[in-house]
Amino acid sequence: MPDILHRVGIKSPSPNDTYKALTTIEGLSKWWTEETQGETKADGVLQFRFGPNGGFDMQVLELDPTKWVLWQVIDGPEEWIGTRISFELKQEGDFTIVLFKHQGWKEPVEFMHHCSTKWGVFLMSLKSLIETGKGAPHPNDVLIDNWK
Amino acid sequence: MPDILHRVGIKSPSPNDTYKALTTIEGLSKWWTEETQGETKADGVLQFRFGPNGGFDMQVLELDPTKWVLWQVIDGPEEWIGTRISFELKQEGDFTIVLFKHQGWKEPVEFMHHCSTKWGVFLMSLKSLIETGKGAPHPNDVLIDNWK
Predict the structure, then answer these.
(1) I want to staple A89 with a disulfide (CB 3.0 to 4.6 A). Which of A15, B19, B55, B101 is the partner?
(2) Could you give the CA distance from residue A146 to residue B91 in angstroms, rounded to a whole number?
(3) Least CB-CB distance to B93: which of A108, A121, A146?
(4) How far apart are CA B115 and CA B107, in angstroms?
(5) What does the pLDDT look like over A1-37, one tens digit per residue?
(6) Is the dihedral of CA B19, B21, B23, B26 positive or negative?
(7) Nearby residues of B22 by Cβ (< 8 Å), 6 or more positions away
(8) Where is the Activator of Hsp90 ATPase homologue 1/2-like C-terminal domain (chains A, B) (predicted)?
């Protein structure tokens, strides 16, 4: 089964700030979408919205502080439902490395190509948030194609 | 086998300029790496270099003007050798859509995660080149992590 994979390195002395940006409403709303709500603790459900384009509900399956975040998509576009999104963090010198996976896609549909590029752009927004204090979350995200 | 997939949409009235940027030394050197040399026609070999980090030699396997470009990696990092890189172009209204695939990876190694994000960033450089006249090729590319 095809997966979306990414790796970004964030200039930061420890994974603490990156972990916080993945596990708090304030953090998530500063790099992915300003329309973020819900419960960030394990078993909680997060709602990510993108204006008229709808969005995703994610259940928080696993949290290991400063190391690991795993979500499962429980509502959203049909292709996303049941897929899992993970962030593995580790420190390499001056960089917090984020290994990202979005797994469980049934088919490598065109929408998956779009989501792959878009995840890359949002992870660069996360990097920018930690390094400069400013990310590019929806509705001010970087547009990549005619699907936005 | 895992693949790297991306989709970008370039504001352009036809795929002609994008196709040219994928099939001429001048075009390739304006979005991927300024150190591009070789033969761009079918069966030709392209050399892409990235300063001290080495680079890739690609054989041009297939060309279908304004629609399709397929390369095979014949030299470079071990994980890349034998893999295939394709660009499928199509016009949707004001956008030239690029469907990108880098296929044939044996394992989803950490380097593949890096390459996935980096390809996304370079495809955004291609988009910028066509839309604004200015891309961000190596050595002025956007750095994504400690592997550059």
Answers:
(1) A15
(2) 11
(3) A146
(4) 13
(5) 689 999 999 999 999 999 999 999 999 999 999 999 9
(6) positive
(7) B28, B69, B87, B126
(8) 14-131
Taking CA–CA distances from B104, the nearest residue in chain A reads A2
Q: What angle do the packed helices B16-23 and B110-132 form, to 10 degrees?
A: 130
Position B1 pLDDT exceeds 70: no
| Span B64-83, average pLDDT | 97
pTM: 0.96
How far is it, in rounded angstroms, from Cα B89 to Cα B96?
Answer: 7
CATH code that applies to domain B4-132: 3.30.530.20
Q: Angle CA(A32)–CA(A125)–CA(B109) in degrees, nearest 5?
A: 100
Kindly report the three-state secondary structure assignment for every residue of A80-142: HCCCEEEEEEEEECCEEEEEEEEECCCCCCHHHHHHHHHHHHHHHHHHHHHHHCCCCCECCCC
ipTM computed for the complex: 0.96
**Measured between alpha carbons, how far is residue A141 from residues A39, A50, A81, A118, A136 in Å?**
24, 10, 23, 9, 5
C-alpha distances (whole Å) from B44 to each of A93, B39, B70, B82 are 41, 5, 12, 16
Tell me how far apart the alpha carbons of residues A79 and B19 are, in angstroms, rounded to a whole number.
30
Q: Which residue in B8, B113, B127 is closest to A5 by CB distance?
A: B113
Could you give the CA distance from residue B31 to residue B141 in angstroms, rounded to a whole number? Answer: 9
Domain ranges of chain B: 4-132
